[in-house]
Amino acid sequence: MAVALAFADPVHEAQRTFRAVMNALARPGTIQPVAGLLDAPAPLSSVAAAVALTLADYETPLFLDAPLAANPDVARYIAFHTGARIAAAPSQASFALIADAASVADFADFALGTDTYPDRSTTLILQMESLMAGPSLTLAGPGIKGETTLTASSLPSDIVERLAANRALFPRGVDLILAGPDAVAALPRTTRIRSA
Amino acid sequence: MYVAVKGGERAIDNAHRLLATKRRGDPAVPEVAHAQIREQLTLAVDRVMTEGSLYDRDLAALAIKQARGDLVEAAFLVRAFRTTLPRFGASEPVDTGAMQVARRVSAAFKDIPGGQVLGPTFDYTHRLIDFLLEAGADIAEPATAPADDAPMPRVTDLLGNDDLIERNPPGDPDAPVGDLTREPLDLPADRDLRLQNLARGDEGFLLALGYSTQRGFGRTHPFAGEIRLGEVELEFVAEDAGFAVPLGTIELTECQMINQFKGSATEPPRFTRGYGLAFGHCERRTMAMALVDRSLRARELGEEAKAPAQDEEFVLMHSDNVQATGFVEHLKLPHYVDFQAELALIRQMRREIAERQNVAPREQQALPEAAE
Amino acid sequence: MALAARATAAELAPLETLAGPGIRMLRAPEIGLVMVRGRIGGDGAPFNLGEATVTRAAVSLATGETGFGHVLGRDRDKARLAALADALWQAPTTREAAEGVLAPVRARLAAEATLAKTRAAATRVDFFTMVRGDN
């Protein structure tokens, strides 16, 4: 069994990635640079791999979408470096890695948390071809002064409706981390969104 | 509630320095090494590992040194340390039947397969202070005797073979094992959660509760079916490797209490059980734990639950000495704002009473029944 | 692997010379926790007793073997050496030499177990019940 290498300096590199994800969630729409893990097995992107290895551990089951599940090296890589178990169903997952973001399952299929424990919901890590090109969205809400714009290439075409439905569940709902080629952005459940 | 205050940094720093000096004691006396605590104060180490809920002899020994021998404080340090570490997984359940036994006694049967092994025990000492220890006397080499590899089945298994004692609840392999370090404790709690709670509970609290059941507060008529001490293998399925790996051995103490029997129109009478398990050599604790475990089963066994040791909320919510010490000792933190509010209130009430007495003496006479 | 887990870092140190070039550290030694489980009544449903510190590491040899080390305690060096022992034991060219390093560990553990057993056996006791007279 040959497992690809991950962080050379696990503590500090994971801390830097964590900070980028935290800032992305705190300031929705901002682009936060992340150094990816170049050895990640395809089709897992280098930035999505860095985020997954930073956040997931033994206690956070992780769901892989069909393209990622098709390559067993991905599950092996995740299991080796994080100890996370691969969730059989999206509703059991703390994190979900989605390579084909445009056809991501209905958000209601993932764990949405409960009113008492809204934190027990899935955080989706969606792989984006680009965070520079593609349709633009106008964002507003906590962490955003006025309005801001986010451009992402690979979101589903009905993302505005989907996120509106997700927001209606508040405090329940999923959070999205968008993993671009060299950076992350985020759409937490608190963000209001419309087509720009 | 207390309101935060600022300031006092220098005083706090200086208090810490003074504490370090006090911890060290007279510099003319050699400093105690944590390895000495680990090797020579082993029962203190075992208690701190158990109540700190972390098996690590070196760490517990260091915590005892840092805490100046305050074992509750040491358990607190250990608990704080464990929160900084990731969890790799859960072990396979340990097999205490396969224990490498160092001590094993039964108060229920005198002849048991494998025999009664006293091991290292205080039980038959005379509790006389040994002043030879003061002088650092040499100790005699322990005696040895030929050992056979006869199995040492659990005493309760022997009763179980004759169907004279209730069976332990079988595990459902698909059901998650309750973990109160991950999910807040909901009542009523299942027995797995109760045992986890008792396993890390304060020994003094468990001892007092166990004692209370013997004195009539929720009597369960116990016999120490078996107490065993020894090493067991620890194994866990490593998610990263994908297979079960041996981690080494740990020392455990186990107590099986045999309790009053129970039967019904359809079931023949059988003895019931209480169970205790702890890290290291913690005999008193495991016995008390087994008594309390059995008491907490009152409702399940259709017994009237009215004694403190049978009250799940009372026991489980007050057993943890780290929580208890935090809440009791927080009373010494600044509560100045709170107390000012209370002072203002009590002054206000007194003023009102005084005013009423001065202003309306006749009103009081008019309503004599109101004064009664 | 059970032997490596119970060895000391010093006992495993000779493995270092067997390793040869091209060793990759797949996972630097990392300290964490394993929840120790017992069973209700000794043989019933599992429950969580408390955690134990565990250190883990993973290495791979130039020839491709991957070795895992998982050991109780917080000794990083020992975890790394245990992973090395696991990898070397899998490689046909180094298995015998790795066994050679572990043999003294096996002997030590056996001697310790025998000593513990014979000392315990010396404290074995036969209780005699006094007859309760009722005349």
Commentary on this structure:
The complex is a heterotrimer of chains A (196), B (372) and C (135). In chain A, helix 1 packs across helix 2. Chain A has a single domain, classed as Bacterial phosphonate metabolism protein PhnH (Rossmann fold, 3-Layer(aba) Sandwich), CATH 3.40.50.11310. Chain A has five helices and nine strands; from the N terminus they run H-E-H-E-H-H-E-E-E-E-H-E-E-E. In chain A, strand 7 and strand 8 form a beta hairpin. Chain A is an alpha/beta fold and 196 residues long. Chain A is globular. In chain B, strand 5 and strand 6 (243-262) form a beta hairpin. Chain B folds into three domains: 9-82, no CATH class; 96-137 and 148-168 and 179-326, no CATH class; 336-372, no CATH class. Chain B has 13 helices and seven strands. Residues 364-372 of chain B have low confidence and may be disordered. Chain B is globular. Chain B has a four-stranded antiparallel sheet with strand order 3-5-6-7. Chain B has helices at residues 9-24, 34-40, 42-52, 57-66, 71-82, 155-161, 191-199, 203-214, 283-295, 312-318, 321-329, 336-359, 361-366, and strands at 54-55, 87-90, 100-105, 116-117, 223-238, 243-262, 270-279. Chain C is α+β, with helices and mostly antiparallel strands and 135 residues long. Chain C has one domain. Chain C contains four helices and four strands; from the N terminus they run H-H-E-E-E-H-H-E. Chain C has a three-stranded antiparallel sheet with strand order 1-2-3. In chain C, helix 3 (76-90) packs across helix 4. The relative contact order of chain C is 0.19.
